[in-house]
Design a protein that fits this description.
about 100 residues, mainly alpha, about 0% strand
Length: about 100
């Protein structure tokens, strides 16, 4: 959505859905079920990466609150060597999504 009001509404919905995942995740993680990456982590990893690399610069998506369960999950995903090995550069994400961002 290019309209600011729709962007804000959709961001709020996304944050609510992420909160639901966090509510049922392992309490200390860092991954969804604990210390090892599982299928849920594999499925959400590309979206976590895109949130930081695309939604943050283009839509003002907030960084996870320091010390939160969401922050530990995001950090675990972002620093996982398998995720890192299959993730494009920040510049490639920015370039790829620029035309959709309406900038």
């Amino acid at each position: 959505a290019q309209e600011i009001s729709m962007q804000m509404e959709n961001a709020s919905k996304l944050q609510n859905e992420i909160s639901k995942l966090i509510d049922v995740a392992h309490p200390s993680g860092p991954y969804f079920l604990g210390t090892e990456m599982c299928y849920v982590d594999v499925q959400i990893a590309p979206w976590i990466v895109r949130m930081r690399r695309v939604l943050t610069p283009y839509r003002g998506w907030p960084e996870p609150e320091a010390g939160s369960r969401w922050a530990s999950w995001v950090d675990a995903i972002e620093n996982n060597p398998h995720v890192k090995a299959t993730t494009s550069t920040d510049d490639l994400y920015l370039d790829s999504y620029e035309r959709y961002a309406g900038v």
